Protein backbone atom coordinates (compact mmCIF):
# COMPACT_ATOMS: atom_id res chain seq x y z
CA UNK A 1 0.00 0.00 0.00
CA UNK A 2 1.31 3.43 -0.91
CA UNK A 3 1.88 5.87 1.92
CA UNK A 4 -0.03 9.07 1.23
CA UNK A 5 1.04 11.06 4.26
CA UNK A 6 3.88 10.69 6.68
CA UNK A 7 5.07 12.89 9.50
CA UNK A 8 8.60 12.71 10.84
CA UNK A 9 9.11 13.82 14.43
CA UNK A 10 6.41 16.42 14.01
CA UNK A 11 6.55 18.80 16.96
CA UNK A 12 4.72 21.96 18.03
CA UNK A 13 5.67 24.14 20.94
CA UNK A 14 3.28 26.78 22.28
CA UNK A 15 4.38 29.01 25.13
CA UNK A 16 7.41 26.78 25.82
CA UNK A 17 5.19 23.71 26.12
CA UNK A 18 5.43 20.80 23.69
CA UNK A 19 1.83 20.35 22.61
CA UNK A 20 2.79 17.82 19.93
CA UNK A 21 5.90 15.71 20.56
CA UNK A 22 7.83 13.92 17.80
CA UNK A 23 4.78 12.44 16.13
CA UNK A 24 5.56 9.86 13.42
CA UNK A 25 2.29 9.18 11.70
CA UNK A 26 1.79 7.10 8.58
CA UNK A 27 -1.41 7.16 6.55
CA UNK A 28 -1.84 4.72 3.69
CA UNK A 29 -3.65 5.50 0.49
CA UNK A 30 -7.33 4.53 0.53
CA UNK A 31 -7.61 3.86 4.24
CA UNK A 32 -9.66 5.49 6.97
CA UNK A 33 -7.25 6.57 9.68
CA UNK A 34 -8.93 7.16 13.03
CA UNK A 35 -7.03 9.69 15.12
CA UNK A 36 -8.09 9.09 18.68
CA UNK A 37 -7.28 10.98 21.85
CA UNK A 38 -8.92 12.86 24.72
CA UNK A 39 -9.69 16.56 24.50
CA UNK A 40 -6.55 18.64 24.47
CA UNK A 41 -4.26 15.77 23.41
CA UNK A 42 -3.09 17.64 20.31
CA UNK A 43 -5.23 16.22 17.48
CA UNK A 44 -6.32 19.56 16.07
CA UNK A 45 -2.78 20.91 16.26
CA UNK A 46 -1.45 17.95 14.23
CA UNK A 47 -4.20 18.43 11.65
CA UNK A 48 -3.53 22.15 11.45
CA UNK A 49 0.15 21.47 10.76
CA UNK A 50 -0.74 18.97 8.02
CA UNK A 51 -3.07 21.47 6.37
CA UNK A 52 -0.59 24.33 6.68
CA UNK A 53 -2.72 26.38 9.10
CA UNK A 54 0.01 26.18 11.71
CA UNK A 55 3.77 25.97 11.20
CA UNK A 56 5.55 23.03 12.87
CA UNK A 57 8.22 23.92 15.42
CA UNK A 58 10.22 20.90 14.25
CA UNK A 59 9.83 17.82 12.12
CA UNK A 60 8.62 17.20 8.61
CA UNK A 61 5.51 16.27 6.70
CA UNK A 62 5.63 14.24 3.49
CA UNK A 63 2.75 13.98 1.07
CA UNK A 64 3.18 11.20 -1.49
CA UNK A 65 6.87 11.13 -0.58
CA UNK A 66 7.45 14.85 -1.19
CA UNK A 67 8.37 17.17 1.64
CA UNK A 68 5.75 19.82 2.39
CA UNK A 69 6.60 23.43 2.99
CA UNK A 70 4.32 26.39 3.67
CA UNK A 71 4.45 27.06 -0.07
CA UNK A 72 3.30 23.62 -1.17
CA UNK A 73 0.12 25.00 -2.70
CA UNK A 74 -0.21 22.21 -5.26
CA UNK A 75 -0.04 19.58 -2.50
CA UNK A 76 -2.57 21.45 -0.40
CA UNK A 77 -4.99 21.48 -3.33
CA UNK A 78 -4.94 17.69 -3.19
CA UNK A 79 -6.28 17.78 0.37
CA UNK A 80 -9.74 18.67 1.62
CA UNK A 81 -10.40 19.48 5.25
CA UNK A 82 -12.79 20.59 7.92
CA UNK A 83 -10.84 21.73 10.95
CA UNK A 84 -13.05 22.85 13.81
CA UNK A 85 -16.52 23.96 12.64
CA UNK A 86 -17.30 24.57 8.98
CA UNK A 87 -18.37 28.16 8.30
CA UNK A 88 -20.87 29.09 5.59
CA UNK A 89 -22.77 32.07 4.25
CA UNK A 90 -25.83 31.24 6.26
CA UNK A 91 -28.34 33.23 4.23
CA UNK A 92 -27.42 31.24 1.13
CA UNK A 93 -28.54 27.74 0.20
CA UNK A 94 -26.31 24.66 0.10
CA UNK A 95 -25.90 24.93 -3.69
CA UNK A 96 -25.12 28.65 -3.55
CA UNK A 97 -22.49 28.04 -0.90
CA UNK A 98 -20.83 25.32 -2.97
CA UNK A 99 -20.96 27.45 -6.11
CA UNK A 100 -19.24 30.33 -4.30
CA UNK A 101 -16.59 28.01 -2.92
CA UNK A 102 -16.01 26.51 -6.37
CA UNK A 103 -15.50 29.95 -7.88
CA UNK A 104 -13.16 30.96 -5.09
CA UNK A 105 -11.10 27.79 -5.53
CA UNK A 106 -11.00 28.21 -9.31
CA UNK A 107 -12.89 24.95 -9.63
CA UNK A 108 -16.37 25.73 -10.87
CA UNK A 109 -17.83 22.42 -11.95
CA UNK A 110 -21.60 22.00 -11.71
CA UNK A 111 -21.41 18.23 -12.14
CA UNK A 112 -18.92 17.84 -9.28
CA UNK A 113 -21.11 20.10 -7.14
CA UNK A 114 -24.23 18.02 -7.79
CA UNK A 115 -22.33 14.80 -7.16
CA UNK A 116 -21.05 16.13 -3.84
CA UNK A 117 -24.57 17.18 -2.77
CA UNK A 118 -25.92 13.80 -3.81
CA UNK A 119 -23.22 12.01 -1.85
CA UNK A 120 -24.14 13.75 1.39
CA UNK A 121 -27.87 13.49 0.66
CA UNK A 122 -28.46 17.22 0.39
CA UNK A 123 -29.44 17.46 -3.26
CA UNK A 124 -33.16 17.58 -2.44
CA UNK A 125 -32.71 20.48 0.01
CA UNK A 126 -33.24 23.19 -2.50
CA UNK A 127 -33.69 26.80 -1.41
CA UNK A 128 -33.42 26.45 2.35
CA UNK A 129 -30.79 28.84 3.74
CA UNK A 130 -27.96 27.19 5.65
CA UNK A 131 -28.98 28.97 8.86
CA UNK A 132 -32.00 26.64 8.99
CA UNK A 133 -29.81 23.53 8.73
CA UNK A 134 -29.31 21.11 11.60
CA UNK A 135 -25.74 20.56 12.84
CA UNK A 136 -25.65 17.23 10.97
CA UNK A 137 -26.71 18.92 7.72
CA UNK A 138 -24.02 21.56 8.18
CA UNK A 139 -21.40 18.86 8.75
CA UNK A 140 -22.55 17.07 5.61
CA UNK A 141 -22.45 20.30 3.63
CA UNK A 142 -18.94 20.87 4.94
CA UNK A 143 -17.98 17.46 3.64
CA UNK A 144 -19.61 18.17 0.27
CA UNK A 145 -17.58 21.35 0.04
CA UNK A 146 -14.38 19.56 1.00
CA UNK A 147 -14.86 16.70 -1.48
CA UNK A 148 -16.19 18.77 -4.37
CA UNK A 149 -12.68 19.43 -5.61
CA UNK A 150 -11.93 15.67 -5.49
CA UNK A 151 -9.13 15.68 -2.92
CA UNK A 152 -7.04 12.56 -2.41
CA UNK A 153 -6.85 13.09 1.33
CA UNK A 154 -9.78 14.31 3.39
CA UNK A 155 -9.03 15.59 6.88
CA UNK A 156 -11.92 15.88 9.31
CA UNK A 157 -11.52 17.19 12.86
CA UNK A 158 -14.12 15.68 15.21
CA UNK A 159 -16.81 15.55 12.48
CA UNK A 160 -19.16 13.55 14.68
CA UNK A 161 -19.09 15.96 17.61
CA UNK A 162 -22.53 17.00 18.76
CA UNK A 163 -24.46 14.85 16.28
CA UNK A 164 -27.42 12.67 17.25
CA UNK A 165 -27.29 8.89 16.55
CA UNK A 166 -28.98 9.26 13.18
CA UNK A 167 -26.61 12.03 12.15
CA UNK A 168 -23.66 9.85 13.20
CA UNK A 169 -24.97 6.90 11.18
CA UNK A 170 -25.46 9.07 8.09
CA UNK A 171 -21.94 10.46 8.35
CA UNK A 172 -20.45 7.00 8.79
CA UNK A 173 -22.13 5.94 5.56
CA UNK A 174 -20.67 8.97 3.81
CA UNK A 175 -17.18 8.09 5.10
CA UNK A 176 -17.49 4.49 3.91
CA UNK A 177 -18.73 5.62 0.51
CA UNK A 178 -15.86 8.08 0.11
CA UNK A 179 -13.37 5.41 1.03
CA UNK A 180 -14.81 2.47 -0.91
CA UNK A 181 -16.35 4.06 -3.96
CA UNK A 182 -14.16 7.08 -4.44
CA UNK A 183 -10.91 5.55 -3.11
CA UNK A 184 -10.40 8.64 -0.97
CA UNK A 185 -8.09 8.51 2.05
CA UNK A 186 -9.63 9.85 5.25
CA UNK A 187 -8.02 11.16 8.41
CA UNK A 188 -10.74 11.52 11.05
CA UNK A 189 -10.19 12.63 14.62
CA UNK A 190 -12.38 11.81 17.57
CA UNK A 191 -12.24 11.52 21.33
CA UNK A 192 -14.84 8.75 21.27
CA UNK A 193 -13.57 5.25 20.52
CA UNK A 194 -17.02 3.81 19.74
CA UNK A 195 -17.38 6.22 16.84
CA UNK A 196 -14.02 5.48 15.32
CA UNK A 197 -13.59 1.74 15.79
CA UNK A 198 -16.49 0.91 13.47
CA UNK A 199 -15.03 2.68 10.47
CA UNK A 200 -11.26 2.96 10.92
CA UNK A 201 -8.78 0.68 9.17
CA UNK A 202 -5.93 2.07 11.26
CA UNK A 203 -6.02 3.81 14.60
CA UNK A 204 -3.49 6.30 15.88
CA UNK A 205 -3.82 7.15 19.57
CA UNK A 206 -2.45 10.44 20.85
CA UNK A 207 -1.98 11.25 24.50
CA UNK A 208 -0.46 14.49 25.78
CA UNK A 209 1.02 15.18 22.36
CA UNK A 210 2.63 11.74 21.98
CA UNK A 211 1.45 9.14 19.47
CA UNK A 212 1.25 6.18 21.82
CA UNK A 213 -0.08 3.63 19.35
CA UNK A 214 -0.56 3.31 15.61
CA UNK A 215 -1.90 -0.03 14.47
CA UNK A 216 -4.26 -1.66 12.01
CA UNK A 217 -7.66 -2.24 13.60
CA UNK A 218 -7.47 -5.94 12.68
CA UNK A 219 -4.18 -6.30 14.56
CA UNK A 220 -5.61 -4.52 17.58
CA UNK A 221 -8.68 -6.78 17.53
CA UNK A 222 -6.56 -9.93 17.29
CA UNK A 223 -4.19 -8.84 20.00
CA UNK A 224 -6.92 -8.09 22.44
CA UNK A 225 -9.16 -11.03 22.28
CA UNK A 226 -9.44 -13.50 25.11
CA UNK A 227 -7.79 -14.22 28.40
CA UNK A 228 -8.33 -16.48 31.38
CA UNK A 229 -8.85 -14.81 34.73
CA UNK A 230 -7.88 -16.65 37.90
CA UNK A 231 -8.96 -15.57 41.37
CA UNK A 232 -6.95 -17.18 44.14
CA UNK A 233 -5.76 -16.60 47.68
CA UNK A 234 -2.45 -18.22 46.69
CA UNK A 235 -1.15 -15.84 44.09
CA UNK A 236 2.59 -16.45 44.52
CA UNK A 237 2.20 -20.21 44.30
CA UNK A 238 -0.06 -19.86 41.24
CA UNK A 239 2.48 -17.68 39.44
CA UNK A 240 5.16 -20.28 40.20
CA UNK A 241 3.05 -23.01 38.59
CA UNK A 242 2.26 -20.84 35.57
CA UNK A 243 5.92 -20.12 34.93
CA UNK A 244 7.72 -23.28 36.00
CA UNK A 245 5.22 -26.06 35.41
CA UNK A 246 3.31 -24.67 32.43
CA UNK A 247 5.99 -22.47 30.87
CA UNK A 248 3.63 -19.49 30.51
CA UNK A 249 5.07 -16.00 30.20
CA UNK A 250 2.22 -13.84 28.98
CA UNK A 251 0.24 -13.17 32.14
CA UNK A 252 -0.44 -10.23 34.39
CA UNK A 253 -0.97 -10.04 38.14
CA UNK A 254 -3.70 -7.44 38.52
CA UNK A 255 -3.92 -7.46 42.30
CA UNK A 256 -2.89 -9.94 45.04
CA UNK A 257 -5.85 -12.17 44.15
CA UNK A 258 -6.33 -11.74 40.41
CA UNK A 259 -4.18 -13.09 37.55
CA UNK A 260 -4.90 -12.73 33.85
CA UNK A 261 -3.40 -15.24 31.43
CA UNK A 262 -3.11 -14.13 27.83
CA UNK A 263 -1.22 -17.23 26.61
CA UNK A 264 -3.33 -19.73 24.75
CA UNK A 265 -3.85 -22.67 27.12
CA UNK A 266 -6.86 -24.98 27.56
CA UNK A 267 -8.69 -24.32 30.82
CA UNK A 268 -8.62 -28.07 31.56
CA UNK A 269 -4.82 -28.21 31.45
CA UNK A 270 -4.65 -25.18 33.72
CA UNK A 271 -7.04 -26.55 36.33
CA UNK A 272 -5.25 -29.93 36.26
CA UNK A 273 -1.87 -28.30 36.95
CA UNK A 274 -3.36 -26.27 39.80
CA UNK A 275 -5.06 -29.33 41.31
CA UNK A 276 -1.83 -31.35 41.14
CA UNK A 277 0.04 -28.55 42.94
CA UNK A 278 -2.84 -28.28 45.44
CA UNK A 279 -3.45 -24.62 44.66
CA UNK A 280 -6.92 -23.52 45.63
CA UNK A 281 -8.66 -21.46 43.00
CA UNK A 282 -11.73 -19.44 43.87
CA UNK A 283 -12.60 -19.08 40.21
CA UNK A 284 -11.34 -19.50 36.68
CA UNK A 285 -13.11 -17.83 33.79
CA UNK A 286 -12.54 -17.04 30.16
CA UNK A 287 -13.03 -13.36 29.46
CA UNK A 288 -12.87 -10.89 26.67
CA UNK A 289 -10.55 -7.92 26.83
CA UNK A 290 -12.57 -5.36 24.97
CA UNK A 291 -11.12 -2.73 22.72
CA UNK A 292 -12.51 -0.22 25.13
CA UNK A 293 -10.44 -1.71 27.99
CA UNK A 294 -7.37 -1.59 25.79
CA UNK A 295 -7.78 2.07 24.86
CA UNK A 296 -8.68 3.17 28.35
CA UNK A 297 -5.47 1.47 29.58
CA UNK A 298 -3.51 3.12 26.78
CA UNK A 299 -4.80 6.55 27.69
CA UNK A 300 -3.80 5.98 31.31
CA UNK A 301 -7.36 5.68 32.50
CA UNK A 302 -8.67 8.77 30.70
CA UNK A 303 -12.23 8.08 29.63
CA UNK A 304 -12.36 8.14 25.87
CA UNK A 305 -15.09 5.64 25.19
N1 LIG B 1 -2.52 28.76 19.68
C1 LIG B 1 -2.31 28.11 20.83
N2 LIG B 1 -1.58 28.67 21.80
C2 LIG B 1 -1.36 28.03 22.97
N3 LIG B 1 -1.82 26.79 23.26
C3 LIG B 1 -2.55 26.18 22.32
C4 LIG B 1 -2.83 26.80 21.05
N4 LIG B 1 -3.58 25.95 20.33
C5 LIG B 1 -3.77 24.83 21.10
N5 LIG B 1 -3.16 24.98 22.28
C6 LIG B 1 -3.13 23.98 23.37
O1 LIG B 1 -2.65 22.78 22.85
C7 LIG B 1 -3.28 21.67 23.46
C8 LIG B 1 -3.77 20.74 22.40
O2 LIG B 1 -4.85 21.35 21.72
P1 LIG B 1 -5.57 20.68 20.49
O3 LIG B 1 -6.72 21.57 20.11
O4 LIG B 1 -4.59 20.33 19.45
O5 LIG B 1 -6.11 19.32 21.14
P2 LIG B 1 -7.21 18.34 20.64
O6 LIG B 1 -6.70 16.98 20.89
O7 LIG B 1 -7.63 18.67 19.26
O8 LIG B 1 -8.39 18.58 21.64
P3 LIG B 1 -9.84 19.15 21.38
O9 LIG B 1 -10.60 17.99 20.87
O10 LIG B 1 -10.27 19.59 22.74
O11 LIG B 1 -9.70 20.28 20.40
C9 LIG B 1 -4.34 22.23 24.38
O12 LIG B 1 -3.86 22.21 25.68
C10 LIG B 1 -4.52 23.64 23.89
O13 LIG B 1 -4.89 24.49 24.93
Automatic annotation (TrEMBL):
- Kindly list any coiled-coil regions of this protein: 267-294
Keywords, A to Z, come to:
ATP-binding, Coiled coil, Nucleotide-binding, Transport
Q: Which residues form the ABC transporter domain?
A: 5-233
- UniProt-listed CDD domains: ABC_BcrA_bacitracin_resist
Has UniProt tagged this entry with the keyword Hydrolase?
Answer: no
Q: Which GO terms describe its molecular function?
A: ATP binding
Q: Which Pfam families match?
A: ABC_tran (PF00005)
Q: Which family does it belong to?
A: Belongs to the ABC transporter superfamily.
Protein name (record): ATP-binding cassette domain-containing protein
